[in-house]
Amino acid sequence: MNTIPSRTAAPGTPTLRPTLHLDRLGSVIAGLIGLALFLSPFVTYRANRIVSGEGRLLVDALPPAGALGTIVVVLGVALCAVLARRPLIRLAAASMGLGVIFPAVGFSAGFVTPAGNTFARVSPAIGFWLLALAFALIAADALTRLRFGPWGRLVALGIAAGGLALLLLSGAWNDLSLMKEYANRAESFWREARQHLWLAFGSMAAACLVGLPLGLAGHRIPALRNAILQGLGVVQTIPSIALFGILIAPLGYLAANVPLAAALGIRGIGAAPAFIALFLYSLLPVVANTMAGLGQVPADVIEAARGMGLSRRQRLFQVELPLALPVILAGIRIVLVQNLGLATIAALIGGGGLGTFVFQGIGQSAIDLVLLGALPTVALSFAAAIILDAIIDLTQRGAHD
């Protein structure tokens, strides 16, 4: 806290008094919190799952004591966002805010729903999502200032995942419409989740098996480099839905004329065109980053390895690939996050995945069914990005040691 001379002090003997510094980001977030708390509905109540609902402010969505306690905590977090400078205090405040509003929105569902009414639906409204966004921004800002290493970020992710799992297992959200949609589709949810993961991770693995040798070939043979990158760049320009449609005809013909293809499940619609499309989209980041990673290996390091008597194969696996690994992993990170999102669209051609619930919800005007597919997809992409970022940092440290 800085100080300035006091105007009431005698000449020649200035006294110092503190000046108040407001955090700029925290001030913006505090305004967002005020908007969410007093002007935006905390939950939406609907008579059934498809009709439009009415919003309830936080003061109306919880019992008086619960509403007062929640408001006090939320305002305390806003005050910390504006005044607190220490990252640990800001992180603790954001964690406390998230730890209060997430159970609160679940408890509000039981409070606003009439006793014995099994048709009513209660969903988190814009006020809840704004509060969650505000607290997440404070936490992200604090974590950035703390400059956690890769292990610290993984621990933070584990704590967040554990807290979310505890919330869901505790039953605090059971009365929310989102969890009612899950309860009605629990078996199909996990089946589609497995399909989603298989499409995303399977296509990524196939792209690595093909893309790494292609990248190596482009690095070793300059004449091939532009041809490979330009060809894969053309694939990236094709919209995903259009690519799915393009693959339907040749795969349908293949299934009709090649019994083995039909036996393997290759058809014009379904998982096969979705998998192939994701595979094709995945190739460019893997190939380009492989070329870039191998290209940045210092020439004197390669010469030193050659002087030690290492063969070309030994230099590749013992020197070049380990040094290029962080850049290659960065490409794989792009692919995995991209595929987890694009796999949602596979449901349009019968490929399954979490997108099934998204498009069912759109067709039925059921926003909670949309969220049942969208929220896990976002969570998976977020977790995958953090985990792979940590792995990249660890490999960079290993390459420099």
From TrEMBL:
Transmembrane segments: 25-45, 65-84, 91-113, 125-143, 155-176, 196-216, 228-254, 260-284, 316-336, 342-362, 369-392
Mode of membrane association: Multi-pass membrane protein
Recorded family membership: Belongs to the binding-protein-dependent transport system permease family.
Keyword line: Membrane, Transmembrane, Transmembrane helix, Transport
Annotated compartments: Cell membrane
Database matches in SUPFAM superfamilies: MetI-like (SSF161098)
Gene Ontology terms: cellular component: plasma membrane
This protein's record includes keyword Oxidoreductase: no
Predominant location: membrane
Entry keyword annotation includes Acyltransferase: no
Any one biological process term the GO annotation gives: glycine betaine transport
Alphabetical list of Pfam families matching this protein: BPD_transp_1
Protein name stated in the entry: Osmoprotectant transport system permease protein
Segments forming domain ABC transmembrane type-1: 193-388
Annotated InterPro entries: ABC_transp_perm/SBD, MetI-like, MetI-like_sf
